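By way of example, we now present a protein record of this kind:
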Amino acid sequence: MELISGLPEDVARDCLIRVPYDQFPAVASVCKGWSAEIHSPDFHRRRRTTKQAQKILVTVQSKIDSDKTRTGLLAKSTTNPVYRLSVFEPKTGSWCELPLGPELAFGLPMFCQIAGVGFDLVVMGGWDPDSWKASNSVFIYNFLSAKWRRGADMPGGPRTFFACASDQNRTVYVAGGHDEEKNALRSALAYDVAMDVWVPLPDMSRERDECKAVFRRGGALCVVGGYCTEMQGRFERSAEVFDVAKWKWGPVEEEFLDAAACPRTCVDGADGAEGRMFMCRGGDVVALHGDTWRNVAKVPGEIRNVACVGVWERVDAGNWIEWVWGKPHMGFVLDLKKSGLGLNLPAQRTTLVTVQSGLPSPNLVLLDLFFFYQVKMLNIIGA
């Protein structure tokens, strides 16, 4: 059966690879041949090699009443926030809101974690928006079908403020956090999204509540900072690294961070052999070079508190950082190679985040905690 009647197969495929990612479900519903093509790994490899692939940024954001924001009533509008998934496609500058499944009709769980695995977006844990009870639920959104499915619950009961990271291919890793009795946890888990199976990892050496997980290139899960039950909010500087191939934790790195601080802004630099990590420390953006953290840029004074940092890749420039803060719809880009402020970026009316487009070299996205009370972000690669 021909993909497109009257056209050679290579020409038909050349047409299909130009379909925008948000039209994949509609295209796949046309016929079995098109569905098989859309779900084929070769199809997405061709999109990447021909530079037709699209980068998208996914965030968990509270809905903000812009009228109240303009009249200075932001605090009232965020008293009982409802969390939704917003998607930005940087090449076109377009925003959309992902539809939530029936079980999420009243919004995403507060403090949930999200991770991208292939063409799946995984939403884990958090607090029920009505009862505020901790949940161990897992919900998965597939960008090829535009459908939600329920995943297997996290084993071991509800946990909150756990670290979460993805290998971008198949597995999501969970580590630390605390249980319903506020006891910090040493346990860690791996979730195979395709198989819908949880596998326990060996316990970490220490309890780590509010830690940050970063999956490094080369197959290492780095769990940074956090604190034990007795310390209650007093973060430590140490980190532990889990070698996926050897299935074992390495020795604790006691002085991984320069200073004891919340590690929520730690991210992998996505820069291959250089292997850098980035984070925000006070008013600076710092990068880990070997065993040393070095200042690479200043955070603008208008940012009250950086909530989180995300990474994406760009081919036509060096390392870029973007900040969003203060007034709604304001954003800036910083070129780390030139260390200068750049573009004033477009933004959605009710969503305070923007990004730049491109392919391979790292880009960081920084968001202000004041406006993004609970924000998560990721890149869906190769859509």
